[in-house]
Design a protein that fits this description.
heterodimer, A: 309 residues, MetI-like fold, two-stranded antiparallel ribbon, 73% helix, B: 362 residues, Rossmann fold, OB fold (Dihydrolipoamide Acetyltransferase, E2P), 2 domains, 5-stranded antiparallel beta sheet, 8 helices, 23% helix, binds adenosine-5'-triphosphate, binds magnesium ion, membrane (chain A)
Chain lengths: 309, 362
């Protein structure tokens, strides 16, 4: 009896675990290891194994010469040149701003959807996910046209600015365009978890709060907002983390100064072909995100304990 | 002047009238109950008092002030909701402190008042628990403490005990009465449980289809229901079809269809030939194998036991009169070991005092 239960558990969770092991855990380990190696002569990694024409392979690395194959130099390069840390900070700033704008825009929208009649609700949710039906790159290209100097949007904006005697602005290839693109792409990932949370709220709690003397502002900050925090955190994670690693949007919409860490990593792997340093950048990115998550959850649990006290 | 005046209030949803020309006045310190079957408009009336619904017609005047343009958060009226509506992200103490925080009272005062409220409902040791860590009865007490802590002029309770089991409900009823006496706040209590209404209230308004059918103290509501609806709704009641045949100074004679003539108390506004029903509570009817027939004030009939229902403390006997009408009677099982006095098909005699019943014209 207990045995069969055990078997079922493994049958169900086995395949996804195996999938994660093969396509996530092992590649991560390979990457972590690559961060300590030297780049190869023609890109990639310096080989540890040599393969003869006959197909026999021999290890080049051994106990005595491992220093020629493994190094901390890639990490030192990251720490020593402040360019990289600055790029990290800028990327976090972009991702953070994107998350904030998404939150501010998505919250009222999610609230509206959650409060509307059931029939309209389904339609509105459909509209939120509708953009996913067309290709991501095509949607970003569309923004290139919208923000481009010839578009109605840009020309109208500049005409309006001219009325106030302000110089015309160029929207495309700027930090502004990058933020617009990032917000546009990630907005649904903020709306959906918020909607899922707000939809479950018990409306009588708001009645109770009002009955006990809370005005609309207080009802929001004392009841709706704290109860929606799980949805907020889910949305923040779903927007912040992908936005942080994004490279296509800065590539297409950004100027020379709006590069993000994603672009740098892509550059290391595809253009400079310096895999070890690309790996270092990836690992540092992952570690920073994990650190932030740890701080957030620690702060969260501390807050809860304080509430209980 | 009464604390609360409800003047000719009407509330419609579309073309459905949920509250239909209701006028009431409630005195300060009163425990007032709105009693009625499901859908009769009790909650709607209560929500108008709290300010969540606007009357389509009429006025609500609290402390001499017209409430028409006062939003719920500005009314000195608090509600205990049927599902308690406790804030799940706040502890018991934080829940109770909520209305005080909204009034922006100083921290120290809030702390003292919360402590006192916790003591009032005997929940001192639960102050730091969250609502999901409490039992139903404890949640109920938190909801009451939260609504009472800032001493509103009026406390509205919408079927607050309906989610509790019978035993706990009885205990909470006693606590509610005690608490109301202690804090002196006026309670407007909504229930569809007539027993609860009779036990708790100073006065009861019996509602049906958006209207108040009868408003009186519990004893009067129970003993002298004004019409068939109230008689039927409150407790068990026999309604015997009858016609007025003779009217005297204080008494009158009625003919109970197919059974015979009976004497009854005179009712105003009737004449010979008026049709109606004699309402008679089961416990007011005497039952015996033979009953002495020497009391001129008593009405006598013969019948046969049709059914017995043993309820523990009492047994209900359903008696079939000569014409087939069924009358419910009740005898306490006060003799030791005695569960039943009669068996099915026993021949019995019934009697009641002329003023035990009450003639209701149709
Ligand atoms: N918002 C609304 N829209 C339409 N009809 C409503 C609305 N609220 C209540 N009603 C109707 O008004 C009538 C009275 O409702 P109300 O909730 O006041 O009944 P109640 O006496 O509290 O009943 P219960 O004992 O079941 O709670 C019902 O028939 C109900 O369907
Ligand atoms: Mg109701």
């Amino acid at each position: 009896m207990a045995h069969s239960k055990h078997t079922t558990k493994w049958l169900i969770s086995g395949p996804p675990l195996l999938y994660l092991l093969i396509f996530f855990a092992i590649p991560s380990l390979i990457m972590a290891f690559a961060a300590f190696r030297f780049p190869g002569d023609y890109g990639g990694l310096m080989p540890l194994v040599s393969t003869s024409d006959a197909g026999a392979s021999t290890w080049l690395i051994n106990q005595n010469n491992w220093r020629e194959f493994l190094t901390l130099e890639n990490f030192l390069r990251f720490v020593e040149d402040k360019v990289y840390v600055e790029l990290f900070i800028k990327s976090f700033w972009y991702a953070g701003l994107t998350t904030l704008v998404c939150l501010v825009m998505a919250y009222p929208l999610a609230w509206l959807i959650a409060r509307s009649a059931r029939k309209t609700r389904d339609l509105l949710v459909l509209l939120v996910i509708l953009p996913f039906w067309s290709n991501f790159l095509i949607r970003v290209y569309a923004w290139m046209i919208i923000l481009g100097p010839q578009s109605y949007f840009s020309s109208t904006l500049n005409k309006v600015l001219a009325v106030f005697g302000i110089e015309p602005v160029s929207l495309l290839f700027s930090q502004f365009a990058v933020i617009v693109g990032l917000v546009y792409v990630h907005l649904p990932f903020m709306v959906l978890p918020l909607y899922a949370n707000l939809e479950k709220h018990d409306m009588t709690l708001l009645d109770a709060a009002q009955d006990l003397g809370a005005n609309a502002w207080q009802r929001f900050w004392k009841v709706t907002w704290p109860l929606s925090l799980p949805g907020v955190w889910a949305g923040v994670a779903l927007v912040f983390i992908p936005a942080l690693g994004m490279f296509a949007i800065p590539d297409l919409l950004g100027g020379t100064n709006s590069m993000m860490v994603g672009n740098l990593i892509k550059q290391q792997f595809l253009d400079s072909r310096d895999w070890p340093f690309g790996s270092v950048l990836s690992i540092m990115l992952t570690l920073t995100v994990l650190l932030l998550a740890a701080i957030a959850s620690w702060a969260g649990s501390r807050h809860k304990k304080k509430g209980k006290k | 002047m009464a604390l609360l005046e409800i003047r000719d209030v009407v509330k419609k949803f579309g073309d459905f009238t949920a509250v239909n020309h209701v006028s009431l006045s409630i005195e300060a310190g009163e425990f007032f109950t709105l009693l009625g079957p499901s859908g009769c408009g009790k909650t709607t009336l209560l929500r108008m008092l709290a300010g969540f619904e606007k009357p389509d017609h009429g006025q609500i005047i609290l402390d001499g002030q017209d409430m028409a343009h006062v939003p719920p958060e500005k009314r000195p009226v608090h509600t205990v909701f049927q599902n308690y509506a406790l804030f799940p992200h706040m502890t018991v103490a934080q829940n109770i402190a909520f209305p005080l925080k909204m009034e922006q009272r100083p921290e120290a005062e809030i702390k003292a008042m919360v402590q006192e409220a916790l003591e009032d409902v005997r929940l001192q040791q639960f102050a730091t628990r969250f609502p999901h860590e409490l039992s139903g009865g404890q949640r109920q007490r938190v909801a009451i403490a939260r609504a009472l802590v800032s001493r509103p002029r009026l406390l509205l309770l919408d079927e607050p005990l309906s989610a509790l089991d019978a035993k706990l409900r009885e205990q909470m009823q006693i606590e509610l009465i005690t608490l109301q006496k202690e804090v002196g706040v006026t309670f407007v209590y909504v229930t569809h449980d007539q027993g609860e209404a009779l036990a708790l209230s100073h006065r009861i308004a019996v509602m049906n289809k958006g209207k108040v059918e009868q408003l009186d103290v519990p004893e009067t509501i129970y003993s002298y229901p004004k019409n068939r609806f109230v008689a039927d709704f409150i407790g068990q009641c026999n309604l015997l079809d009858a016609t007025v045949t003779e009217i005297g100074a204080e008494r009158m004679k009625i003919e109970i269809a197919g059974v015979g003539i009976a004497e009854a108390q005179k009712v105003e506004g009737i004449e010979i030939g008026t049709k109606g029903a004699l309402s008679l509570r089961p416990e007011k009817i005497k039952l015996g194998v033979t009953l002495p027939a020497d009391d001129a004030d008593e009405v006598h009939f013969k019948g046969q036991v049709h059914d017995c229902l043993y309820l523990g403390d009492v047994t209900i006997y359903i008696i079939e009169l000569e014409n087939g009408t069924l009358v419910e009677t009740m005898l306490p099982n006060s003799d030791p070991g005695k569960a039943k006095f009669f068996d099915d098909n026993d021949l019995v005699e019934l009697a009641w005092r002329f003023d035990a019943g009450h003639f209701l014209p149709v």
